[in-house]
From TrEMBL:
Belongs to the iron/ascorbate-dependent oxidoreductase family. InterPro entries: DIOX_N, IPNS-like_FE2OG_OXY, IPNS-like_sf, Oxoglu/Fe-dep_dioxygenase_dom, Plant_2OG-oxidoreductases. This is Fe2OG dioxygenase domain-containing protein. Keywords: Dioxygenase, Flavonoid biosynthesis, Iron, Metal-binding, Oxidoreductase, Vitamin C. It comes from Picea sitchensis.
Length: 359
């Protein structure tokens, strides 16, 4: 049976969210970040890096950009890129196409329903209730493989609107070029050859998955999360959104709300780059909040190694004073291990809660 769609719940006009969406007190967002325009100007902010000069002939300009990208990757594990070279028109068309799909009635979208329980994640979905805790996220999503081209199953891509395929494909090609540039910069910073990270991550076989996150209006945003706190299993993740705040990064013990910067592309360092760099670059803990007045939509492109790629700290970043912090695992083992650990932690939290209630 397909899980309940959050959009249908939101449209039913309920005043209180069902208990499966209510987060434990310690996970709930604090009030100040929920206001649409309420992103504070004070305190630390996600680094913003202008990469306009990346292709410049001036080596000093390129080096400075490299330094900023590496610094953000070490200290935050996330950055907002300006002048990334992807045209505003393409981004507008991508976002219009994704929105047009989600504007379809739920019954139409159901024709694309995925079957996550059976391992088929591609298509329209909502988080499945985990047996242990039953905890759900206030979002529906659309997920499909974007790259490499020859491995895509176009039957899993939306057929409406008509331009979805063209613009999403064009966006994927642009992101693929940025992947090469960022991995080259990070490789140089680690003191290995520029092509190294990309090669270890599969080269031509590096995969990109697109997840469009659709967060309906929520009557009790102070109790829910759109996406719970996690680090990405990917190597890199690229994120666009519809200018409604909601993304938060955990930094120096506090949740920091990402400012909505017109034209910026958010880049997260994922677990695979953290592992390959032996922790020199950080896979940042982040989460997504929801909102009472506005629907939030975000477009995440996860860049992953192939499932069978063995990922461990690169030998050049390990020595006697920097012993390996992570065991080498295939990407599939890493994913399975992380999902298992999460399910286990939720089961333990649920058991502790029940015990607490019975005493
Ligand atoms: O290939 C990936 C890499 C990632 O980093 C992630 C991913 C896939 O999917 C996660 C996801 C997708 C669908 C769901 O219902 C989820 O609960 C999680 C995503 O969060 C991300 O970590
Ligand atoms: O919507 C966002 O800003 C965050 C999405 C996210 O973290 C995810 O899809 O994994």
């Amino acid at each position: 049976m397909a899980p309940a769609r959050v959009e249908s719940l939101a449209l039913s006009g309920l005043a209180a969210i069902p208990p499966e969406y209510v987060r434990p007190v310690e996970e709930r967002p604090t009030e100040c970040v929920l206001k649409v325009k309420g992103v504070e100007d004070e305190g630390p902010q996600i680094p913003v890096v202008d990469i306009a000069g990346w292709d410049s002939a001036d080596e000093e300009i390129k080096k400075e950009i490299g330094r900023q990208v590496a610094k953000a990757s070490r200290e935050w594990g996330v950055m907002q890129l300006l002048n990334h070279g992807i045209s505003e028109i393409l981004i507008e068309r991508l976002q219009a196409a994704g929105k047009a799909f989600f504007d379809l009635p739920v019954e139409e979208k159901e024709k694309y329903a995925n079957d996550h329980a059976a391992g088929k994640i591609a298509g329209y979905g909502s988080k499945l209730a985990n047996n242990a805790s039953g905890q759900l996220e206030w979002e529906d999503y659309y997920f499909h493989l974007l790259w490499p081209e020859q491995r895509r199953d176009m039957t899993t891509w939306p057929k409406h609107p008509q331009e979805y395929i063209e613009v999403t494909d064009a966006y994927g090609r642009e992101i693929r070029k940025l992947v090469t540039k960022i991995l080259a910069t990070l490789s140089s910073d680690l003191g290995v050859e520029e092509e190294r990270l990309e090669r270890v991550l599969g080269g031509e076989n590096l995969e990109m998955q697109l997840k469009i996150n659709y967060y309906p209006r929520c009557p009790q945003p102070e109790l829910a999360l759109g996406v719970e706190a996690h680090t990405d299993i990917s190597a890199l993740t690229f994120l666009l959104h519809n200018m409604v705040p909601g993304l938060q990064l955990f930094y120096e013990g506090k949740w920091v709300t990402a400012k909505c910067i017109p034209g910026a592309l958010i880049v997260h360092i994922g677990d695979q780059v953290e592992i390959l760099s032996n922790g020199k670059f950080t896979s940042g803990l982040h989460r997504g909040l929801v909102n009472k007045e506005k629907v939030r939509i975000s477009w995440a492109v996860f860049c992953d190694p192939p499932k069978d790629a063995l990922i461990g700290p690169m030998k050049e970043v390990v020595d006697e004073s920097n012993p390996p912090l992570f065991p080498a695992k295939t990407f599939k083992e890493h994913t399975d291990h992380k999902l298992f650990k999460k399910a286990q932690a939720q089961a333990e939290a649920q058991a502790a809660k029940k015990l607490d209630q019975s005493t």
